[in-house]
């Protein structure tokens, strides 16, 4: 990638990462993805005592369909158990196909198991934090005003994020373009709450699209 495009991508990355401060909670809710580091980070949070329950949510989504042969939540579950998390501290929701379903199906699973949900740590990829937050705040079936939410992600910088699994930086940039467009358009569809996009962030989006970058999904 050209350096000017890297800087534009970093502008979007910084906006999409929300930087919430962690706080002790009832549940660590982990959205599935194509990045196993999300599961590994959630396991760290559990071992550190941030919440007693881990919920892994995700079937096969846009980035894992045809790539993984098992649901994202099942793979994340196995990562957690291998890293020493007690199986009786884990719940698995492996049918959801998008972020809205992650929220709705996980709520039902927690409710069915009589697990408190007054405070939740939501774990996603760094550049998915904002979209995950906006979706949760719109789709959570419980009383959102009585639910404390913080969103977090693996502590990885934009420049260090690329690896063999998630692909090169260009791949991440094109996924971010897709996600930012959804942050922009999904509120009017009723999928997410509205969030203001600063002019410089939308300008970065437009410049990357004009340069030939495309939505990844």
From TrEMBL:
Which taxonomic lineage is given here?
A: Eukaryota, Metazoa, Chordata, Cephalochordata, Leptocardii
DUF218 domain segment(s): 26-142
- Which Gene3D superfamilies does the UniProt record give? HUPs
Q: One Gene Ontology cellular component annotation?
A: plasma membrane
| Family matches, as Pfam families | DUF218
Q: Which InterPro entries match?
A: Cell_Envelope_Assoc, DUF218, Rossmann-like_a/b/a_fold
> Could you identify this protein by its name?
Uncharacterized protein LOC109473647
Q: List the signal peptide residues.
A: none
């Amino acid at each position: 990638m050209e350096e000017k495009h890297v800087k534009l991508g970093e502008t979007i990355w910084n906006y999409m990462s929300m930087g919430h401060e962690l706080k002790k909670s009832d549940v660590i809710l982990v959205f599935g993805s194509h990045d196993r580091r999300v599961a590994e980070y959630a396991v760290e949070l559990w071992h550190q005592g941030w919440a007693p329950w881990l919920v892994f949510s995700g079937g096969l989504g846009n980035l894992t369909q045809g790539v993984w042969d098992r649901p994202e939540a099942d793979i994340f579950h196995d990562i957690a158990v291998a890293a020493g998390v007690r199986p009786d501290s884990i719940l698995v929701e492996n049918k959801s196909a998008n972020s809205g379903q992650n929220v709705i199906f996980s709520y039902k699973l927690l409710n069915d198991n009589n697990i408190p949900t007054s405070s939740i740590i939501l774990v996603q990829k760094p550049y998915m934090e904002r979209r995950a937050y906006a979706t949760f705040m719109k789709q959570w079936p419980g009383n959102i005003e009585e639910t404390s939410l913080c969103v977090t992600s693996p502590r990885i910088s934009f420049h260090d994020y690329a690896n063999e699994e998630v692909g090169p930086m260009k791949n991440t940039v094109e996924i971010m373009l897709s996600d930012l467009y959804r942050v922009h358009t999904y509120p009017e569809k009723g999928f997410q709450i509205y969030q203001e996009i600063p002019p410089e962030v939308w300008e970065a989006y437009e410049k990357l699209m004009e340069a030939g970058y495309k939505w990844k999904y």
